Design the sequence.
């Protein structure tokens, strides 16, 4: 039942596919990266930083939207990578996500690549 004056927001959730090859982990995200799904992404990132992976690549090519909690999760991943000396790279930003990163001036902070092959260079 809908209450008058209330706005209901549908959450789409997120799917996380994980692949590991020679110490390089790729997390492919699909769906909205928002306050509802960010804890799942954080948990996946934590698992691989705890394993001391050589590099973590986050594929955002199927993420149509990211909010501030999603960005905060990725910033936290970047901080972990600096502390652990692991590489942390983002791949395939959709136009909307790329716009948000540009507005927040994060394209200069993260290592961002168009494709996974480009991100794998130099690891």
Sequence:
């Amino acid at each position: 039942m809908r209450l008058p004056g209330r706005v209901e927001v549908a959450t789409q959730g997120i799917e996380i596919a994980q692949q590991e090859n020679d110490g390089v982990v790729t997390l492919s995200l699909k769906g909205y990266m928002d306050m509802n799904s960010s804890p799942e992404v954080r948990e996946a990132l934590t698992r691989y930083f705890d394993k001391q992976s050589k590099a973590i690549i986050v594929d955002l090519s199927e993420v149509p939207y990211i909010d501030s909690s999603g960005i905060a999760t990725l910033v936290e991943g970047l901080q972990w990578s600096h502390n652990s000396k692991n590489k942390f790279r983002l791949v395939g930003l959709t136009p909307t996500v790329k716009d948000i990163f540009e507005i927040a001036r994060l394209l200069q902070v993260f290592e961002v690549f168009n494709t996974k092959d480009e991100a794998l260079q130099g690891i």
About this structure: Confidence is low (pLDDT under 50) at residues 1-11.
